[in-house]
Amino acid sequence: MLSHEQIWEAIDRLAERHDLTPSGLARRAGLDPTSFNKSKRLSADGRLRWPSTESIAKVLDATGATMEQFLALLPPGDASGERTGERARQPDSRFQPHGGAIPLLGFAQAGAGGFFDDGGFPAGQGWDVVEFPAAPSQKSGVYALEVQGESMMPLYRDGDVLIVEPGAQVRRNDRVVVRTREGEVMAKVLLRQSPRSIELMSLNPEHANRTLDLSDVEWIARIIWASQ
């Protein structure tokens, strides 16, 4: 198992290989320049903060490095994921229901802090659970968001449940959930993604489309299933 320290050190080494600071690497990848700062690697309450898979993918694309080259930058560790000579701290456990149950949260609550880690995976307390068929529930890290209100009509109605897979690759025309750094959570269709911004189409024609700077986006995750 990879440790928190190993992943961050590999990012630092990748930056150094390209004569960049961690901030410069984040900027080249179209991320918030502070994304890889050492102060961002721990939360205010001391919890470990991990870089998202999307962030890693963007720095690999920006530097032209392959995943194999990135993994080669990892410092040595033993089979348990601990770095040689020191004890690696373990991340907080993510919400892990049993069987076919997955975490459930209302859209209105999703904008509040404490329900997701930096990668957009469910974490912390306050989640409900819902039983779902085997196919979506067996995907790692999936969770459910319950639609509240009429803002996503006519595609999604009040009470519909959306199954979201954080960490999955998103492509043009995918239906996605986006959370901004200001805490706004929205379900949209991804029209276009560039190194600096994303363009989103509203599900409800009465609501305007949105264009967001990537620096303002905390995470984006693909909707893989919906109960309607």
From TrEMBL:
Start-end of Basic and acidic residues biased regions:
80-92
Q: Where is this region: Disordered?
A: 75-96
Keywords of the record, alphabetical order, are:
DNA-binding, Transcription, Transcription regulation
Entry's Pfam families?
A: Peptidase_S24
What positions does the domain Peptidase S24/S26A/S26B/S26C occupy? Answer: 103-224
Q: Which CDD domains match?
A: S24_LexA-like
The UniProt GO MF terms for this protein read: DNA binding
UniProt-recorded name of the protein: DNA-binding protein
- Give the species: Rhizobium sophoriradicis
Instruction: Print the organism lineage.
Output: Bacteria, Pseudomonadati, Pseudomonadota, Alphaproteobacteria, Hyphomicrobiales
